[in-house]
Amino acid sequence: MKTARHQQGFSLFIVMIVMLVIALLVVVTSQSSTTEMRISANEADRKFALSMAESGLRDAELRIQDFSTAAVGTVSFDYNCTGGLCLPAEPINIVDTKPRFTVNGTVPNNPIEAWKRPSSANSRKNLLEDPAARNSVAGQARNSNVRYIIEYLGERKDDKLIRYHFRVTARANGQNPNTAVTLQSYVEMTPP
C-alpha cells in the first residue's frame, strides 16, 4: 500500500510540471504574436508614410509643370525657402540672357542643404520637420502630413534648348509621429 501512495504523489508532481511547461508555452506564444502585430503595424505605417511622401513628390512635380506656363520672372527662389521654393547650397548655373526664374539674395559662405535649414530663426526643427512650416515655408501636398520643398538647381543649354533643373525633397509622417519618410527626386523642365 505504501507504494501506491508514493506513485500518486509522483503523478501529481509530473502533472504540475507539464502544466507549468504548457503555461510557459502559452506566454511565449502570446508575446511572440504581440511582437509580430507591432512589427506589422509599424511596417504598414511606414508604407503609408512612403505613399504620402510619394504623393508630395508628385504634387511638387505638378507645381514645377505649372512653372512652364507661368510668366517669366514670376516664380522666385531664395535661400530662406519662401513658399517652399529654395536656392540650393551649391552654386547654380544660369545661361539664359532673360532668366525665366527670379533668384533673390545670395547663398551665404557656409550654406546648409535646403532640407536641413531651420524653419525660422529661433527654431531647432528644419523645414521638413516643423509642423508650423506645413502651410507657410515648406509647401503642402493634399495631406497635412506631407511637406516638400523645391530647389532650383540651374539651367543647361543643349542645341538652342534651355533645360531647367530642380530637386524636390518631400517628407511625410505616418500615423505614428515617429514614422517619417523622406524622398528626393530630380526634375528637368523644358519650356513650352
TrEMBL record:
Pfam families listed in its UniProt record: PilX (PF13681), PilX_N (PF14341)
Q: Which domain of life is it from?
A: Bacteria
**Keyword terms:** Membrane, Transmembrane, Transmembrane helix
Presence of keyword Glycoprotein: no
Q: Which InterPro entries has this protein been placed in? A: PilX/PilW_C, PilX_N_dom
All residue ranges annotated as the PilX/PilW C-terminal domain in the record: 105-187
Boundaries of every Type 4 fimbrial biogenesis protein PilX N-terminal domain copy: 8-58
The transmembrane segments are 12-30
Coiled-coil segments on the chain, per record: none
Indicate what this protein is called per its UniProt record. Answer: PilX N-terminal domain-containing pilus assembly protein
Species of the source: Conchiformibius kuhniae
Q: What is the lineage of its organism?
A: Bacteria, Pseudomonadati, Pseudomonadota, Betaproteobacteria, Neisseriales
